[in-house]
Amino acid sequence: MSSNLIRGTFILTLGTFISKFLGLFYVIPFYKIIGGEEAAALYSYGYVPYTIFISIATAGVPLAVSKYIAKYNALEEYAVGRKLFKSGLLLMTLTGFSAFLIMYMFAPFFAELSIPDSEQVYTVEQVTTVIRAVSFALIIVPFMSLMRGFFQGHQSMAPSAVSTVVEQIARIAFLLTGAYVVIHIMGGSVVMAISVATFAAFIGAIFGLLVLFWYFFKRKKHLDELLKKNKGQADVSLTGMYSEIVLYAIPFIFVGIAIPLYQLIDTVTFNRAMAEIGLASQADAAFGILNFSTQKLVIIPVSLATAFAMTLVPLVTKSFVSGDHGVVKRQLNQTFEVLLYLTIPAAVGIALLAEPLYTVFYEHSELGTDVLRVYAPVAILFAMFSVTAAILQGINEQRFTVLSLLTGILVKLTLNMPLIKLFETEGAVYATALGYLTSIAMNLFVIRHYAGYSLRPIAKKIALIVLFNGAMAVVVLGLNGVLSLLLSPEYLWTALLNVMICAVAGAIVYFALSSKAGLLEALFGSRLDGIKRKLRLKKA
User: Fold this and answer.
1) Which of 195, 384, 427, 482 could crosslink 133 through cysteines, CB 3.0-4.6 Å?
2) Which locations, inside or outside the cell, does it occupy (predicted)?
3) How many CA atoms within 13 Å lie on the side-chain side of 316?
4) Contact at 8 Å (CB) between 368 and 362?
5) Domain enclosing residue 134, as ranges
């Protein structure tokens, strides 16, 4: 694998994984503080529209700007990227403030979409309060996103990774402290605690932005040195610049809001479908499991795909612009191989250990277990969509990203209510899976047609990955069955011990088989050699 792709992916993967794991593990104390699935549903009612707004407000900025700057840097036209950066800061400030005003004013409308039945636990006014609390983050995040894209376009992934982690730490610290103080010290309501928790997004964004400022002033000297090497042959006007950025950004907007759009469809249709089959009183708790509890666990393997997408776009763009299609194909092969090698076992493991895993993070729940078991494999689809969409950006066929996503959304929208009525909460997961499968199939078809790329050359490695996952699944399933007789999955500590033993056993089997078959060496050869050399030096 190319050193730039490995290094950039490793840095962003590390940063994204730390951020995602923090975002996962904070739910354990948070869930205990706010008091269960219905309160988690209220949190989701506020965060889903915010996620969509933040994606639109940032206009796909990190990836779009990174692609634009990488393109002109490859041509040694460094001044073009700097010109974009300066004007973009003002534009993102205006965009963010406008998005904040719109979300704040239309909060009652979004709340009414979420609460269609009077039998539900929360009122429209309470959901409105939560939505308005989270809207303040829109003022800062677009500005921060532009800075991240600027660094990524210069193949510098550390600022994005570090700022993401710091942002998450600050957000979680404020969220947990604020929610605890409101409920357990001030004796306040769950609605007020959730409002404080969602406002934490604004606090986190401030800290993330401060980190990016520090990196910028630290590296300004180096960035100015690049300007001295500028060829100055490209005369790009602001109008032409933003026209090109918009063309890049629109597909990124759709990719960024893919999961939130699916969640929005659930927000609008789930409670209505449950009410139509006489389960309105159970809808809030079930929605909390679907859009908060299980989604937090399932999204972890997807963080790898996010890191790959962010690193892949500027690198593939550079190779594609240079006309080096052989390098492009090698990059795509390596990306798919590593992506599937890491995401499939993660998804399989979550599905197999759904019962004790849900108990560890939340509480023992039959519905939570069933939904998590069905939802876990969808993580592979989330990851594949992110990466195939990123590839389409890299080969300048981003228009098809919009088409494939809209087609998948149409499938989800069409099937969601019928499947919920048939299978209740799990029906929403089935509709999501079918929508993503449709989008991925379309993306792969376009990649094959325009880039001449096929998964066939790596079919053998994919088959080995599937085979080794099957072997791992047999071991984990058998071990979990035995341990469940000795360690009850209904209690936190016994469930945690069960998960740890099974996860370690599964990982040993998977990596041992991969190593023996040479798959591990084929995928991570250069990286493994580097680790071995470092270990030998330490021993010496």
Assistant:
1) 195
2) Cell membrane
3) 28
4) yes
5) 3-454
Residues 399 and 465 occupy one common structural domain: no
Residue 480 tokens read as 């979990």
Pick the last residue of a domain from 392, 422, 454. Answer: 454
Q: Are residues 181 and 282 in the same domain?
A: yes
Give the residue ranges of the chain where pLDDT is below 70.
1-10, 12-13, 16, 59-63, 117-119, 234, 248, 252, 303-314, 317, 321, 323, 525-540
| Total domains in the fold of the chain | 2
End-to-end CA distance of the chain: 28
Q: What region does 77 belong to: left with phi over 0, alpha with psi -120 to 50, or beta?
A: beta
User: Are residues 441 and 497 both part of a single domain?
Assistant: no
> Does residue 291 share a domain with residue 238?
yes
Identify the CA nearest to 304 among candidates 250, 379, 214.
Answer: 379
Cβ neighbours of residue 219 under 8 Å, at least 6 residues apart?
156
What is the model's pLDDT at position 538? 53
Location of structure tokens 């960035």: 223
Q: What is the pLDDT of residue 1?
A: 45
* Pair 47, 137 in one domain: yes
